[in-house]
Write a structure and sequence with these properties.
About 30% of the residues lie in helices and about 20% in strands. It is of the alpha+beta class. It has one domain: 3-Layer(aba) Sandwich (Aminopeptidase). It is globular, with a radius of gyration of 15 Å. It starts with a strand and ends in a 22-residue tail after the last helix.
Length: about 140
């Protein structure tokens, strides 16, 4: 059995360990302890972890810009997959976002991560083909 609870800054090391063990998830400067703590403070109660026994086995981060929600870093260790943990984590995020009036949510998935793409599509999320996402990184922060 697993227990879902809000993610805290104290979970940082365990969450980074989850990400490092998961193909298709990248760690960048934006995932530093400081940046993650700032994100959690800016979006209180919107990111979650799943404890399986005495181990952190899954996580998801979410936030919003006042209009749209954004999910990031949904990770479930392979040995805990297919137990409904990812779906429960996502549902918690969506429910909390909805309670704030945020009804539309986005997630970015690397084009090379076929497993993640299949997961999202199987859950009714649709691939956007009508927009292009552009990013801009300030000089000196190439890995942001």
């Amino acid at each position: 059995m697993y227990k879902i609870r809000p993610m805290t800054a104290d979970d940082y090391q365990a969450v980074v360990a989850l990400m490092k063990q998961t193909p298709g998830v990248s760690l960048r400067e934006a995932d530093s302890r400081e940046s993650t703590s700032r994100y959690l403070e800016r979006n209180p109660g919107l990111s979650f972890v799943a404890e399986i026994g005495d181990r952190l086995g899954a996580c998801v981060m979410s936030g919003h810009d006042g209009r749209r929600g954004y999910l990031q870093h949904l990770v479930v260790l392979p040995e805990y997959r297919r137990r409904g943990i990812a779906t429960a984590l996502v549902e918690r995020c969506l429910a909390e976002l909805e309670s704030l009036g945020i009804l539309k949510c986005h997630i970015d998935v690397f084009k090379t991560n076929a497993q993640a793409s299949a997961y999202w599509e199987s859950r009714g999320w649709r691939l956007r083909t009508d927009i292009n996402r552009y990013s801009f990184v300030r000089t000196g922060a190439e890995n942001a």
